[in-house]
Amino acid sequence: MDLLNRFKEYLSKEKLYTPGDKILLAVSGGVDSVIMTHLCKQAGIDCGIAHCNFQLRGAESTRDETFVTALANELALPLYTIRFDTETYATEKRVSIQVAARELRYAWLEETRQQHGYTCLATAHHMQDNVETVLMNFSKGTGIAGLHGILPRQQHLIRPLLFAQKSDILALAAANGYGYVEDSSNITVKYTRNYFRHKVIPVIQETYPAAVPQMAASIDRFREAELLYNEAVQRHKKRLLFQQGDNYRVPVLKLQKAVPQQTLAWEIFKDFGCSPAQLPQVIDLMQSEPGKWVETTSHRIIRDRVWLLITSLEVQEAPLIVIEKETAVVPVKGGTLKLKIRPADGATIPTSPLMACLDMDTLQFPLLMRRWKQGDYFYPLGMRKKKKLSRFFIDQKLSLIQKENIWVLESAKRVVWIIGMRIDDRCKITPNTNHMLVLEWQPI
Amino acid sequence: MDLLNRFKEYLSKEKLYTPGDKILLAVSGGVDSVIMTHLCKQAGIDCGIAHCNFQLRGAESTRDETFVTALANELALPLYTIRFDTETYATEKRVSIQVAARELRYAWLEETRQQHGYTCLATAHHMQDNVETVLMNFSKGTGIAGLHGILPRQQHLIRPLLFAQKSDILALAAANGYGYVEDSSNITVKYTRNYFRHKVIPVIQETYPAAVPQMAASIDRFREAELLYNEAVQRHKKRLLFQQGDNYRVPVLKLQKAVPQQTLAWEIFKDFGCSPAQLPQVIDLMQSEPGKWVETTSHRIIRDRVWLLITSLEVQEAPLIVIEKETAVVPVKGGTLKLKIRPADGATIPTSPLMACLDMDTLQFPLLMRRWKQGDYFYPLGMRKKKKLSRFFIDQKLSLIQKENIWVLESAKRVVWIIGMRIDDRCKITPNTNHMLVLEWQPI
User: Fold this and answer.
1) Where does ATP bind (chains A, B) (predicted)?
2) Helix B261-269 to helix B211-240 angle, to the nearest 10 degrees?
3) Is the pLDDT of residue B246 over 80?
4) Where exactly does CATH 3.40.50.620 map onto chain A?
5) Domain B3-219 belongs to what architecture?
6) Residues of chain B with CATH 3.40.50.620
C-alpha cells in the first residue's frame, strides 16, 4: 500500500480525522512536516499551515519561512506565521533555548488554532520519534505509562504521521521531487534525543535491522495493555480509596493485602502529590504508629488506626468532623487531634492545656469536632455555672484571628472541650472514673 | 546496606527462600555464580553445588571443573558434576552448540535437583542480564509479557542475584579476595546478548549513567503492571470466551465492541495456537461470511453466524452436536455442515448428495448431529418403507471405515438426513413447502 493510503487508513483507525474537521498543520519546512502537508492536501483534508520563525539561525530561519510561504501558495493553503524573539524570552524566563522555543511554539499554535476555527493541531512526529521517546523513558526509568510513547491524539493535538518510518517519508519526497529545507542545527531537538537517534538506535539496528517497526508495534501493544491495566487499577481504587467530604481515606489492612502493592499504592497516592521517592515512606506508614504522616506537595497522608487519611494542604472551609470511638487521629486545619482510651486507675492528669482527659462515661460517641459558633456555651472546668464561649474568649483575651481558629469537641450536643484551652467540668475525671479519653492537640 | 543484607532482603521480598528449603546452585565458576555461592553460604542457607563441564574449551573446561570442586571443598558443600559430550549431542540433534549446552544443562540440573531432594535450583542471573533480556525483547517486538524480563522465580527455578549489579558482584569478589574463573569464549552466551551487553547498553549509559538500575526498576514496575493487566484480561475472557463441550465459542458482536480489541483477541486466540501473524486473519473473520475459517497449529477458528467457533484439530470422541435455528456452520471431524433457511418458492432442488433441502415444517429444532448407531432407521427418499441404516449402508456398499465416518442429522428423534448420502422421504420438499432448510456438507 502506498503512503497516502496508509496515511488515510491510519487517520481512520486512530479516529484522527472526520469530515468537517479542519486541521492546522505545524510546518517547520523540514521533510516530515512537508510530507504531512502534501498527504493532507492529497487526502482532501481541509487544512492550513502554521510556521514559527524562532530567529535563531539567521539567514536559515528566513529561508525556512520563505520556503513554507511558497509551499502554502503552491498548495493554496491558508498560512499563519510568527517571528519569536526566542533568545530574549529564554533570558527573561531563565529557561533553555529549547524550552523557550517549545513554550512559545505550543502557546502560539494553540492560540492560532482556536482563533481560526481549526478542530485540531497536527505535528509531524513519526515512528522513529516515537521509538526514541519510549527508549529514553525506559532508560530513565518509567512505569507502564511511559511505554505508550507519543500518542496519536491528545485532545486537540494529533500526530497523523506516527505510522510512517523516516525512510518512507524520505522516499515519498524523493519520488515526487517535493522540496524541503534542512535544519543545520536541529535546535529544537534535545541533545539526548539526537544521541538516541544517531548513536543508540543504529547500534540496535545492527543486530535487529527491523528494530524500529518492531518497537513501534510493541508500543502499540503497550498502549492497549495500558488500557487494561488502567481498568484493573480503577477497580482496585474503588475498594481502596474512599472520599469523605474534602478528605480521602485508605484502609490500611486492605492496602497491606493488595497485590501488587507498590503499583496500587503508587496509583492511589500519585494523585495526591506523592513523588516516586516518597512512595516508600507512604508505604512505611502502614507499619507506623498512629499520628505519623508524610507531607507531599499538596497533601498530608496521615496514619490513623485503621486508615491512612489524606487531607489537602489547601485552606478549606471548616468542616464538621465525626469522631468514632476507633478514631486515633484527626488532622484538621491548624493541627492534629490524637485520641486514646485509657483506664483511669493511677493515671496522672496532665496539666498542659493541649491535653485533656475526659470521663468516658460522660461521653456519647460519635463525637463531633467543629469550629465554635455564637450561642455555644459550656461549664468551664472548676465552675458550677455555664458560660457562653464568646464571653469565655473575652476573658481569655483572644484576638479575632485566635477566635477564628478555635475548634471545639462536642458530645451529645454539649461542648466538652474547647480544644487547647479548657474542658467542661461535667466531663472531668473523678475518683469514680473507669476509663478516660485522653486527647492531645498538636498545633502545626 | 552491604550485598549480603541486600541478598537476604531480596530473598525474603521475593519469597525465594524459607527455612527448610534446600537450594541447588548452578555454578560455572564464573564470578556471578561464585558470589551467589558465597552469599548463600554466609546467609546460612542449606545448599549444594552443581557444575556442568561441557568439554568445549579443552584445558579451560577442566580448569573450571577443578576450581568449582575446590570451592565446594573449601565451603564444605555437596558437589555434583557431570561431563557432557556437547558436540556429539549438537550434531546428533542438529542443534547449535548453544542450544545443545542449554538443553543438556537444564535437564541434568533438574534431574539432580530432584534426585538429591533440593527444593529449588538457583542460577546467578543478575540485573544486567535482566536489562539485556528486556531490551532485546523490545527490539524484536513484544507485548507486555516480554517486559517482565527474567523472573525471580519460575516454579523450582530461582534467580536470587537479580537485584545485584555486575559492579556490586565484582566489588564483593575483589573486597574479599574470592577467586573465580573467566570464560574466554563465553560459549553459552548468545551472540546477540553479548552484542547488547558490550555495544548497546554502554552507549545508552553514556547519556544515562544509571540506565541499568533505572531500567531494572522499570522492569519491576512492568512486572506488577502485568499482574493488573492479567486481572483485567481474565475478566474480559469470562464474557468473551465460552466453553461448550470440547469446543469454545466467542460472540462476534461482543468481540467487535471489545476495547482494546487487538489485545483481547490475542489473549483469547493465542491459547488456541494462533500466531501473531495469524491474528489479523482471525480478526478479519468477524467481517467474513459464515463458513470461513482460519486454521492454527492446533485449532480451527470458524466464522458462524453470531459466533467464532474454536474446535480442536485433535481427533475426538464423536460428539453430539446441538444445532439451533440460528446455527450457520457446524464444524466437525471430517468436514463442515453449513445451514441456511430459504423460501421454497421457485427454488431448484440441488441434486448433489452433499446438499439437502428439507421442509422446515417437518423439522423440530434444535436438530442434533451425531454419528449413526445400530438400530437407526429412516425412510429413504423415494420409498414408502422404513429401512435400517445398517442395511442401507450394505446396499450402498460402504466400507467399514466409510461407515465409521458417517454423520446423521436428527429431528425429534428421527433421522432426517444421512449426511452426504440420502434424506428422509418425509422431510422432502413438496408443492406445499413454505420454507426449506438448505444443508451443505463440505468434507475436508
Assistant:
1) 28-33
2) 80
3) no
4) 3-208
5) 3-Layer(aba) Sandwich (3.40)
6) 3-219
Contact between residue B258 and residue B238 where contact means Cβ atoms under 8 Å apart: no
CB-nearest to B224 from A138, A220, A263 is A263
Residue with the larger pLDDT of the pair A109 and B193? A109
> At CB < 8 Å, which residues of chain B contact A?
135, 138-144, 146-147, 192, 195-196, 199-200, 203-204, 206-208, 211, 214-215, 217-218, 220-225, 227-229, 231-233, 235-236, 259-260, 262-264
Helix pair angle (A127-140, B211-240), 10° resolution: 110
| Nearest beta carbon to residue A221 from set B143, B214, B231 | B143
> What's the CATH code, domain A3-208?
3.40.50.620
Provide the pLDDT for residue B328: 87
pLDDT at position B125 over 70: yes
Name the H helices within A241-303: 252-257, 261-269, 279-284
* Torsions phi, psi for B316 (to 5 deg): -125, 165
Are the beta carbons of A141 and B218 separated by less than 8 Å? yes
Angstroms from A98 CA to nearest CA on chain B: 18
Residue among A369, A259, A279 nearest A323 (CA): A369
Please state, in angstroms and rounded to a whole number, the distance separating the CA atoms of residues A273 and A70: 49
Distances (CA, A) of A374 to A153, A416, B68: 56, 16, 85
Helices and strands (H and E) in chain B: how many: 15, 22
Digit-coded pLDDT (tens) for B351-388: 888 999 999 999 999 899 998 888 899 999 988 899 99
B154 φ/ψ angles, rounded to the nearest 5 degrees: -135, 110
Name every chain A residue with its beta carbon within 8 A of the beta carbon of B192. Answer: 207
pLDDT recorded at residue A188: 62
Question: Under CATH, domain B321-443 is a member of which superfamily?
Answer: Phenylalanyl-trna Synthetase, Chain B, domain 3 (3.50.40.10)
Alpha-carbon distance of A160 to A39, in angstroms, equals: 10
Supply A108's cell numbers.
502560539
Tally Cβ neighbours within 10 Å of residue B221: 21
Q: Are the CB atoms for B101 and B187 separated by under 8 Å?
A: yes
Put simply, the answer to whether A225 touches B262 (Cβ < 8 Å) is no
CATH 3.30.465 is the classification of domain B241-312 = yes
ipTM of the modeled complex: 0.74
Q: What is the DSSP string of B236-290?
A: HHHHH-EEETTEEEEEHHHHHH-SSHHHHHHHHHGGGT--TTTHHHHHHGGGSPT
Run means of pLDDT, 10 residues per run, chain A, 444 residues: 94 95 97 97 97 92 96 97 94 91 94 96 97 95 94 95 96 96 73 89 94 95 96 96 86 95 96 92 92 87 89 70 86 87 85 91 92 90 91 86 86 93 93 93 87
- The CATH 3.50.40.10 domain(s) of chain B lie at 321-443
The C-alpha of B346 sits at a distance from chain A's nearest C-alpha, in angstroms, of 44
In whole angstroms, what is the distance from residue A329 CA to residue A22 CA?
56
Residue B315 pLDDT level (bands cut at 50, 70, 90): low
Domain with CATH 3.30.465 in chain A: 241-312
A275 is in an annotated binding site: no
A70 CA: distance to closest CA in chain B (Å): 40
